[in-house]
Amino acid sequence: MADYEASSSSNATTCGLTACSYHVFLSFRGKDTRRTFTDHLYTAFVNAGFHTFRDKEELDRGEDIKPELQKAIQRSRSSVIVLSKDYAASGWCLDELVMILERKSTLVDYVVLPVFYDVDPSDLRNQQTGCVAEALAKHERNPSLKDKVKQWRSALTEVANLAGMVLQNEADGHEAEFIKKIVKVIEDKLSRTPLSVAPYLIGIHSQVEDINLWLQDDLSNVRIFVIQGMRGIGKTTIAKFVYNSNFKRFEGCSFLENIREVSGQPNGLVQIQKRLISDVLKGRKVKIHSISEGINKIEDALSSKRVLLVLDDVDHADQLEAIVSMQDRLYPGSKIIITTSRIGLLKDHQTVKMHNVEALRYKESLELFSWHAFGQDHPIEAYMEHSVRVIHHSGGLPLALKVLGSSLSGKSIDVWKDALNELEAIPDDEIVKKLRISFDSLKNDHDRNLFLHIASFFTGMDKYVIVQILEGCGFYAIVGIQNLIDRCLVTIDGYNKVQMHHMIRDMGRGIVRLESEEPRKRSRLWNHKDSLEVLTKKNGTKRIEGLILNMRRCTAYTPRSSNEVVLETNAFARMDKLRFLQLTHVKFRGHYKGFLTELRWLCWNEYPFESLPNDFPLERLVVLEMCYSSLRKVWKGTKSLPALKILNLSHSHGLIETPDFSLVPNLERLILKNCTSLVHVHESIGNLKGLVYLNVEDCKNIRRLPMEMMNIKSLKVLQADGIPIRKLRPKKNPEICWASCLPCSLVELSLTGCNLSDDDFPWNFGNLSSLRRLNLSCNPLSGLPGWIRNVGRLDELSLSQCTRLKSLEGLPNVGELIVHGCSSLETVTFQPIPSLPIIILDESNCKLVELEYYFKLEPLERVDEEMIKVLGLSKYLTSMQTIMMDTIHVFNIGRTKMQPIQGLYEYGIFNTFLPGNEVPGPFNHRSTLSKIYFTVPVNPNRKIRGLNIFSVYEKSSIHSLMMIAKLHLDRTRASYNPIATKVRNNTKRLEWIYGPSFFGVPNDGEQVIWLSHWKFGNQLEGGDLVKVSVLTTSELRVKECGVEIVYDEREEKMMNTQQNTTDIAPSFSGFDIGGNLSPSDMATMGQMRTYFLCCRPEELRESETHRSKWFNQLNSGFDETTVCFGEEAICGESRSGIIAHDPRLPEGRGCTMQIKAFFRSLPLVVSLSLRDSYGLAWRSCFESRQNFRYFSLSSQDLPSPGNLFNPVWGDLPIQTLRRTADWCSSPIYTVEPASSDPLLLEICKDVQNIA
């Protein structure tokens, strides 16, 4: 059981003592400093909230150390040793020192801070002269202390070599300021103690990315971030990881673990309140007598400082009310993270961010399991097949992978086989115990029974179907399912199916199994062997509410001598409460009178007879499913089914006609999919006033549609894919068009593969005023049917695989347009629309040259004359018309196309790609590197309209660019940009990253010029500091780039001619660059607003992290080196290159052997840390390196204004680092390299801009 009274700090768990009693242990020589310096230091620690131990009694010099002092050292998180002149004269003090250092050697997080008070560290280190030497010599004259003196000398030397604080060197010797600094050092060191996190954090980085960005965004007004998911999915691990990565950014922090468990204890919520206040106030004890009193004290504690709170495993609103009821009054910048398995817990809070923790993918699951089972990242070869079984069984649940991996570790293959067979029948107890918490938390038996029904029978089924079945049994199914969703017991997927992780499903089935050792006495039977046994023995009981039997899964249990098993209908005689029955490939003999009269759901797949027996009881059925049946008629004559809501006869290939629906008044869904012999739909269908869904997909022989269908005012969805619909005629009026039978109430209509051409759509289709989703895929259409333009709005229009489709002109307001597989499509234009649709394309759309509001591609000779002038192409235009070059479209990345030079309009940017390296037009800013820094000139008489940007690039790989890109496309299944331009306005904190959808391909040994014009309005002004860089993947290399500022008078006419192509909707009119930004991706990185204008922005994010001349593939001085930045380098993403070292990197103890080995493999390290501790922390990694170059900007390196200095160690040939800004302003440095090495020049430029 968790106990919050056991520790005074949330970080104490890493002490190895969850019951640490003190923050600080003070060691001092009483005669020297007890009533002076040490007394003031003790008071300062107490006032700062540190629980501090000091001995109150004077001890004689020779007395042994007290047991209570030994215990105090063991139960402290740090020791401050005040080393005064006579400290070494006390044997008791020296014994205390030895014990403190022993504690430090056994506990990695234990903090020891020597304070040298009127004594120099060299005196303790040398021990040859002075008061220390005299004291030790006096001790040596006592023969009984001979061995101890050796130990004391060693301890004094060790403590002298620790990083400590010397009074004479700090605050000019002023004790008051010195004490403040000591308290601050201890405060920093103790607050940096991270929580213990589970090993093998596989797949965690993708889970924590958004949370880290939120924690580091000081401008966000969102105070609460909820991490939610099923139990065992890793919520607490994620919370601990982000807590450890970020808590140093806050003035106070607290990680409250297991709130659900602790709050259930006597006075549990008060315990939690005390713990929170103690953590935030750094150990200060408070008395709380009631929850309401605690709420007030928490408000006082949290209202004056930026805090990070993590509330782990919250499952009730009362817990939040007791802890953070005043979140609106938190100090600005404070953040709260909540982990919960209750999804609906904070739905009323509008400013809450949510993160749903996803299960691990297959490779991640295999790696995590392997670490626990084999101690390595992959299975032993002989165990691979069995490991895969475990992975599939675990469903990506980290809890299951850890438990099963540990339990199977070191076992033989025979044991593995038996264990896995048992596991598939009976779930592991440890996993079930964890998962069952959510089941037990359900508020009533109604929800628990509903859960057990779904776990036993309905996982993976359509939610609508489940609701109808369960409501037919008296359940409140909609609210009940929502309660299960809120507790992460079920989810609803994108197809409206109720999904349940099969570890949770097995937990539910395990609960049913506990009802009795005998299957016949359980309430639910889903195991086919158990069901067959009960039916064969005819020993079922009244307890059985549902049963599943698939005879195709029972071949191992049936006699081989017989071809099939025929069961007796009287086997169900005792099952009076049976309401759910699912049969597959089952035959019965006997009469059906009185057969299962309580049945609500009958699913009889592969029904063996041509019709249902006349005496078959159907009166209470709510759902009847008879797929893949041998039915020719469902029933003879008319049958009364007053409760039936769903009839599914799909894939019944012998069915000739539908039944008479006259006595089926409540039918809502009729599914006749792939009933290939169906000819006639009974006219009584028109009497179904509640029919909502009709599916006649692939009923290829249907000939008539009843006119009565027009009367079904409730029909919302018609699936008529693959039927000869244009040949259909109403039975009573064959001269009337097929469309006349469609009710105007239709919301969704699917006519995929109906062989419909342009002329097959009558104009009265426009009467379908309610239509929102239309699927015309796989039809021989060449253009947009005219009637569609008259529809007010379509949420979705699918024309995929219409291979004859050439143009879509004047599209109406469409939410999503699906045109993948339209290999002939060239242009898409829209009517005036308030917002742009989502458009789904693929590599087959290679002929697409215009997608209005997105891009337009046309030969250069057709481009507007003013644009040609702006880019300086006028005198080259005639000669360019005969030039052909290889190009690639991102929608057909695997294939080049030889064509004339093209102009591309996209996002308000004009582009063209030219062969060669002779750049037309003047460019004032040029560089042989891949980026340029410049300041926009201040000229009040000229208005800036934009930038001309060029880059010259070539292939850097011996491989085919198209082949590499195609392989990349195969991996990502998305469009791909191998080159992009980034424009960053540092002054306005705006940047745009643009990857063109069309680009030129250089041949071997040749180069290509990318020339572009970017239209800026007020986003670019005089005085702005701008950086333009070209980002590429490893297949391309930039040789040169350049920028020219374009002013208003040069392009006024040209901009008017572009209006039709680049204008944007009113809601986005604030942006000139980027055209319509609605399809772009915008992210806030720190305080920089970044717009990704490309088909695949995540590729460009990756490029920005790993590219840019010295952030990736730095070619000057290093051959194909790879660069990492920040934490990604620590994770070992790359094995050679340059590390740009930022303040987020781990310190001190994080410098493990693995990281050291990684750093030693790098040819250069540039440290941009602004804290001194980083240089010290990493120094040991590099001291043995030859030809190693290092330079650091740290807080203690900052020179006084005007002074020069050199790095104190390392071999980076930088002569001077001069501060050019005022001391109080943000640090800006001028770096002067000792040589003209291009690498150093590039580094120096970036240091100047980053530092």
From TrEMBL:
InterPro entries linked to this entry: Apaf_helical, Disease_R_plants, LRR_dom_sf, NB-ARC, P-loop_NTPase, TIR_dom, Toll_tir_struct_dom_sf, WH_DNA-bd_sf
UniProt domain TIR: residue ranges: 20-190
GO process annotations (BP): defense response; signal transduction
Molecular function terms, GO-annotated: ADP binding
Keywords from the named record: Leucine-rich repeat, NAD, Plant defense, Repeat
Superkingdom of this protein's organism: Eukaryota
Pfam family, one: WHD_ROQ1
Protein name: TIR domain-containing protein
